[in-house]
Every structure is written in structure tokens, then in C-alpha cells.
Design a protein that fits this description.
The protein is mainly beta. It has four helices and 21 strands. The strands form five sheets. Strands 5, 6, 7, 8 and 9 form a five-stranded antiparallel sheet that branches. Strands 1-2-3-4 form a four-stranded antiparallel sheet, with no helix packed on it. Strands 10-11-12-13 form a four-stranded antiparallel sheet, with no helix packed on it. Helix 1 crosses helix 3. The chain is globular, with a radius of gyration of 22 Å.
């Protein structure tokens, strides 16, 4: 394979280096950077940095997690309020524990006896030796999902104001402003993450004001999903004026009217999967109209959450890409274009 002789970075100069565990999200507000960390051995959840001198960034404070099964890889800030997520570490054991009761009942009915560990393991796609861990997780389901609110007026001493628990494996990503938090989380009675909106008027006592979900997610309300598992779920929703732009993984994206936050209303959607196989990570409108049209841009994520036996099937398939859409009429969204970075421009090709 021919490889490009050009450098991967052009017109970019590194000013400094700070050795920290991997970051999930970095928010820069004023003179400070707020770093949410992916799971790490130190259980480091969030770092607050002074970046007034970009050549010499300084760690002002760090928040560590008490729970070894949780991570806090997202951080957002509005004024002196910081929100971080609390989500279960993505291990195969946790999801299998959720599947175990239904699987055991189904096998019991078909076999007319209690299924063995070997039979359960085969259906779950795990080792027989993993079943005791799955059963232990079934007996003690995850209960730390949610988000934490901190007062960061003194960046060196963040002060915990509230821990709002949600449900399931907890909060993945979210948006916020000085008054509201727009949380993507699992909740009891729903399949996959939905949007839950909280009023932060009193940040020590967040109050839920509204919810939005794709039809089919609210199984406790009698809805039936037309997809399998949690492939259709909210990754996160971003607010632009009276609208929320919701990226919904393998469900494409939705435009939601939030002029009344207590009653979010779907304005339109577009699902370009499975033609493009990688899930929708982020969707947002372009600020200005182009030739009189309102344009939106979607960014897909290269989904690494695949089992080893699917690796062969993934070879040759289209990679995650950027897509543009005409969203002038949210009820009649039209695709416009697609852009994909060459594999030779990836550091993994070198």
C-alpha cells in the first residue's frame, strides 16, 4: 500500500504536554479546562486545569470516584456550575446480567428444566466460567447511574451540590446551559437512552421538567420497538434556540421542538442507516443559511463495540463519515453530501 509522505498535522504546533489519563470530553471555559476521564486504574473522574498560560497548564483540582464500577468521562460547565456524568463501566458482564432473567425463563420453558451454566453461557456468548459473575451482577444491579453537580466558583476546590440518580447504566452524554441540563440517560421503563430535561434553578435540587424519546422506547407505556436491543437510542441532544438536535445512534437523527420544555415535540427525523453502517454520534445545524437553505451536519462514530466474530464481516464496509443535510423543512429532510477521510490520513495506517 502506498503511504502519503505528508505529515499528519499541518499548521499545528504543540505548545505543551500534560500527562493525564485519557480524556473523554474536554470543555474549555474562560481560563480553565474541565477534563472528563475515560475509565482508568486511578479512578480519576474529572480534572480542572488552569490554561491561562497555554505553554504551562496547571492541574488545579481532581475528583476521584468511589465506585470502581463507574466512570465520569463527560464534563460541561455553565458559569460556576459543572456537571459530570456517572455511567457504568462498559463490560460485557453488566449487559449479560440484564439479559439473564429473560433468557433463563425462555430456556426453562423450552427445556422443561433449569438451564445449566453451559447452556446459559452458549446463549449469552460468554464463557461458562463467567456465569457466576453474571449472576452476581444480576443480584446486585448497578445503582450509581446519574449525574453530579458541582459548584466550581473556586476551581481548586470543587464542591458537590447534588448527585441526581437516573436509571439503568446511567448518563452517557449531555448538554447544559445556565438554567437547564439536557441529559441522555437510561431510565426505568425505557429501552436505551432517552432525553430527560432538568431545571437547575436551584442546582442543589435539580427538578425534572420534561422527557423526549423515540416512539418504541417506552416499553412500560405499551410501546414496542421496531429494532433489536438498544441500537436505537439517544446518544445526546444539543440545544439551539427552541430546538434540540438529537443524535440517535442507529436511529439516525431527530429535530425536537422544546419551545415548551415540559412537552418536547418531534418535528422531523432522518435515518440513513444501515446504508451508512456506523451510528450517528452528533447532529447540529450550520449557523447561517446557505443559498437560502438551512443545512445540518451529522458526524458518525466508528463503532468499536463489536464482538470478535464480527471482525471478518466488518472488513470492507464503509467507515464513519461526515454527512450534510437540507433541513429547511424538518418534516422533509433531504441528504446532500458525504465526506470521508482517507484511511491513509489515519495515524493507525502508519
Amino acid at each position: 500500500m502506498d503511504r502519503s509522505p505528508h505529515h499528519l498535522a499541518r499548521n499545528v504546533t504543540r505548545l505543551s504536554h500534560l500527562d493525564l489519563p485519557g480524556a473523554g470530553q474536554v470543555t474549555v471555559a474562560g481560563d480553565f479546562a474541565y477534563v472528563g476521564h475515560i475509565p482508568n486504574k486511578q479512578r480519576l473522574g474529572t480534572s480542572i486545569l488552569d490554561v491561562r498560560d497555554p505553554k504551562h497548564p496547571k492541574v488545579l483540582s481532581q475528583i476521584f470516584l468511589d465506585d470502581p464500577d463507574s466512570h465520569s468521562h463527560k464534563a460541561r460547565v455553565a458559569g460556576d456550575i459543572m456537571i459530570v456524568n456517572s455511567e457504568r463501566n462498559m463490560t460485557p458482564i453488566g449487559r449479560r446480567a440484564e439479559e439473564l432473567p429473560r433468557l433463563r425463563a425462555r430456556l426453562r420453558e423450552s427445556l422443561k428444566r433449569e438451564p445449566s451454566h453451559a447452556e446459559l453461557a452458549e446463549k449469552l456468548g460468554i464463557k461458562e466460567s463467567d456465569i457466576p459473575m453474571v449472576e452476581a451482577a444480576e443480584r446486585n444491579p448497578y445503582a450509581q447511574g446519574g449525574f453530579r453537580i458541582y459548584d466550581v466558583a473556586d476551581r481548586a476546590k470543587p464542591w458537590l451540590l447534588a448527585f441526581q440518580k437516573t436509571g439503568g447504566i446511567g448518563v452517557h452524554r449531555f448538554d447544559m446551559d445556565e438554567r437547564y441540563a439536557y441529559i441522555s440517560t437510561e431510565m426505568p421503563g425505557y429501552v436505551g437512552n432517552i432525553l430527560v430535561i432538568y431545571d437547575l434553578r436551584d442546582p442543589s435540587k435539580p427538578q425534572e421538567v420534561g422527557r423526549w424519546w423515540m416512539t418504541g422506547q417506552h416499553v412500560a407505556g405499551g410501546e414496542t420497538p421496531t429494532w433489536s436491543g438498544r441500537r436505537h437510542r439517544l446518544h445526546h441532544a444539543l440545544r439551539f434556540g427552541s430546538e434540540m438536535w438529537a443524535s440517535c445512534w442507529h436511529g439516525g437523527f431527530w429535530v425536537v421542538d422544546v419551545s415548551d420544555l415540559s412537552k418536547p415535540k418531534s418535528l422531523g427525523s432522518y435515518n440513513y442507516h444501515p446504508l451508512f453502517p456506523e451510528p450517528t454520534h452528533t447532529i447540529m445545524p450550520v449557523p447561517e443559511r446557505i443559498n437560502g437553505r438551512r443545512i445540518a451536519m451529522a458526524i458518525d462514530e466508528e463503532d468499536q463495540a463489536q464482538s470478535a466474530n464480527e471482525e471478518e464481516a466488518r472488513r470492507g464496509r464503509a467507515h464513519a463519515c461526515i454527512l450534510t443535510f437540507d433541513v429547511t423543512d424538518p418534516a422533509a429532510i433531504r441528504p446532500l453530501g458525504q465526506f470521508q477521510v482517507s484511511e491513509l490520513d489515519s495515524p493507525f495506517s502508519r
